[in-house]
Amino acid sequence: MDESSALVGKEKFFDSDTIIISKTDLSGKITYVNNNFLQMTGYKESEVIGRPHSIVRHSQMPRSIFALLWSTIKEKHEIFIYLVSKCKNNDYYWAKANIVPTFNAKNELIAYHCERYAPDKKIIDRHILPLYNELLAIEKNYTNSKEGMLAAIKHIQNILAQNNVNYDEYISSLAA
Ligand SMILES: Cc1cc2nc3c(=O)[nH]c(=O)nc-3n(C[C@H](O)[C@H](O)[C@H](O)COP(=O)(O)O)c2cc1C
Is the pTM higher than 0.90? Predict the structure, then answer.
């Protein structure tokens, strides 16, 4: 792992009964965060509302996972991803995030909602970090970032095909 993908800063943890919530508009700009989000990240509400959610992006997150996230929620489906995010002071925290599309009364997509739960650290260490390091390595192998992302998505699809599962089944099958 090179420096750009190293987990710098201090890892932070949160309780299993705490839910860290944020909401975005359709373009990923933050429209709402709960107090747990502010406490965990060290931001003030005024510093995050209206900003792209990528302000908390951590370099350990593969682009391919975000591509999968966006292609899924734009299709009006929810998704679970393991997510490491940066705090204001460069500390970081892992979460199991459920990102859900929000609809109006006409069933039109109007926003997105993310709930982050305390993850099982053993699943992160045993499955997610190795997977994300593989994806980052594939992504960095290409000078064209889009080609790298597509190659990493193909790698995820191969893993799913080998295990004969879809992405949701794969995520929920991970055991410590
Ligand atoms: C509701 C919602 C919540 C999100 N929460 C996070 C988050 O906590 N951390 C993060 O890095 N990206 C989060 N994202 C994804 C970002 O919008 C963005 O795709 C990601 O940070 C990658 O940014 P980039 O493509 O500009 O590098 C969220 C997206 C949505 C729709």
Answer: yes
